[in-house]
Amino acid sequence: MLARTGRQDERESTQVRRNWIFDPGKLQPGDVVLERGKRLRSKAIALADRGTYSHALLWLGNTDFIEAVGNGVRVISFQRVLVHHPKRWLLIRLVEDPGKAQKAAAVARNLAHKKYDLRGALSTKMGGRKTPDPTSLFCSQLVATAYAEAGYAIAPGKIAAQVTPADIENKSGMTSIPLPLVEVERGRKANRDESYKGTSMEREMQVSQEAFLAVQGHIDTLEDPATDGVNFPPGSLYDFLEVLSRQKRGVGTESEDLLLSELSRLNYFMLSVPTVIGARAEIESARAELLAPDISDAERHQILENLNTVAMSYRDTQQRYQQNGATCQRIYSYRRHQLWLKLAAMHFRNADGMSMLIELTTDTQHHQG
Question: Per the CB 3.0–4.6 Å rule, which of 102, 251, 275, 298 could disulfide with 200?
Answer without folding.
Answer: 275
